[in-house]
Amino acid sequence: MPRNVIAALALGFAAALPAFSAPPVAPPPVVLTPVQAAFIQAETRRIEESFVQKVMSIAGARREQVLRAIPAKGRLTDRLSRIYSSLERDLGAPLSDEQRALIFAADGERKQALKDLPAQAATR
Asked: What is the value of pTM for the model shown?
């Protein structure tokens, strides 16, 4: 193989590889005032309760069934598949695709609301 072809291939591969650099530095932890911390706690409870209410109305399940279906915080499990399977077992019937989609959307809203909380707390 001619030398210039080998050089061109080497440059092509080098351009395709990601550049190596130092690992990113984590931002400093945010210090919350007591009012901000209380706001985040209250809003987190409100957001989680809203999610439970939505799932209850979507699936036609009781509150206890929905709470039992939600995996404990820190559990290494897929949250939505656990909710689906637990509700299906408790209700004795599979959830429809529409119900699954609505629960998926409600969980997306829950995640986004929780993600937006620190910015909201910072304005308080």
From this structure: 0.73
Contact 58, 99 (CB under 8 A): yes
CA-based radius of gyration for the chain? 24
Confidence of residue 28 (pLDDT cuts 50, 70, 90): low
Three state DSSP letters for the chain:
CCHHHHHHHHHHHHHHCCCCCCCCCCCCCCCCCHHHHHHHHHHHHHHHHHHHHHHHHHHCCCHHHHHHHCCCCCCCCCHHHHHHHHHHHHHCCCCCHHHHHHHHHHHHHHHHHHHHHHHHHHCC
> What are the structure tokens assigned to 24, written together?
């990113």
Q: Are 114 and 47 in contact (CB under 8 A)?
A: yes
Window from 29-38, 87-96, 113-122 with minimum mean pLDDT = 29-38
Decide: 103 and 80 in contact? Cβ < 8 Å. yes
